[in-house]
Specification:
Distance between the termini: 94 Å
CATH architecture of the largest domain: Orthogonal Bundle
CATH superfamily of the largest domain: Intergrase catalytic core
Largest sheet: 3 strands, antiparallel
Number of domains: 2
Length: 325
């Protein structure tokens, strides 16, 4: 008699369901975390035994006791909705009746052009200076820039292809002329490092999806390498490949915070502020909002409209009456 294999754990089922749908690794970790917290909150009872009352109580505790933001609370709700609908395949009508937290409308922090110059000057000479220039010059998110591959920069067409951005959508943005020289010099240094890695039996890089199975040697090809690789390598445990990851977000965030502080800018600016500044300065220069929407990769133009509220001259060019006194 053949022994029956044990059923996978609930969290393993969650991970499998997420990977089948090709959700991002960040979404996977976030959903698993929220489902684990929900189960612990309910004293390790199986979610099949729970219902609307327990979910509502959990979400309320996040807001009242955990003081989480509305977006965080909604992410927890999305994770539980995925659990019941896509993993346990239970009716979720009662989940749809739960009220989602209303996210407050916030005007984004934006740096002036002079402030951007000051921050970039403080980063001058560091590897992070080029990344900051890319963020401001293209409007990319930090992780999108760090996950750039060599093949995604087209110097001939002056454009960069952003792969698997938010919502797993590709898009194109411009390659600023003033960044072409520094990027070419940087890539020459990265290529020298990559060739040295190859000589030492390393030089591998993580590939998206199942591409590594289809093209077993692609992970060592120059075009697939990270534009901004980490200084240290690592050994991937399953394959034994000696790889390099891309530069970690925290390294860039830390350097940017130091540059803002050294520039004596009082605004609570972060790397994402460069994306806000990119959009605002384009609109301020007279570019139409649909173009900016495409460059940012927003699904809805209403998301892009928030930048019209932070322009120096206002969306309609309205001047304060105090300026005519």
């Amino acid at each position: 008699m053949t022994a029956t294999a044990p059923a996978p754990s609930l969290l393993t089922q969650v991970r499998d369901a997420i990977r089948v749908r090709h959700y991002s690794r960040r979404t996977e970790e976030a959903y698993v975390q929220w489902i684990r917290r929900f189960i612990r909150y309910c004293r390790m009872r199986h979610p099949r035994e729970l219902g609307a009352a327990e979910v509502s109580s959990f979400l309320s505790s996040l807001a009242v006791e955990g003081h989480v933001s509305a977006s965080t609370q909604n992410q927890a709700l999305a994770a539980l909705l995925f659990l019941y609908r896509d993993v346990l395949r239970m009716p979720v009508g009662w989940l749809n009746t739960l009220v989602r937290a209303k996210r407050p409308a916030r005007v984004p922090v934006v740096l002036t052009r002079e402030e951007v110059r000051r921050v970039l000057a403080r980063l001058k000479g560091r590897p992070t200076a080029l990344i900051a220039g890319v963020l401001y010059g293209t409007g990319m998110r930090l992780l999108e820039a760090l996950q750039l591959r060599v093949k995604d920069i087209d110097f001939g067409a002056n454009q960069i292809t952003v792969r698997g951005g938010k919502g797993d959508r590709d898009r194109r943005t411009m390659l600023p002329e003033r960044l072409k020289g520094p990027l070419l010099q940087h890539l020459a240094e990265v290529r020298t490092q990559h060739e040295r890695d190859l000589e030492q039996g390393a030089g591998w890089v993580e590939l998206p999806g199942a591409l590594g199975l289809k093209y077993p040697q692609a992970g060592r090809e120059w075009g697939w390498q990270w534009v901004f690789p980490a200084g240290r390598g690592y050994v991937e445990p399953r394959s034994g490949q000696r790889r390099r990851h891309h530069l970690h977000e925290s390294a860039m965030q830390r350097a940017f915070k130091e540059a803002v502080r050294a520039s004596r800018i009082a605004k609570p600016a972060s790397c994402h502020t460069l994306r806000h500044s990119f959009a605002t300065h384009l609109l301020d220069s007279g570019y139409d909002i649909r173009t900016v929407q495409e460059l940012l990769g927003h699904r809805n133009v209403e998301t892009t409209m928030i930048y019209t509220h932070v322009l120096n001259r206002g969306g309609l060019g309205v001047k304060s009456p105090a300026d005519s006194l």
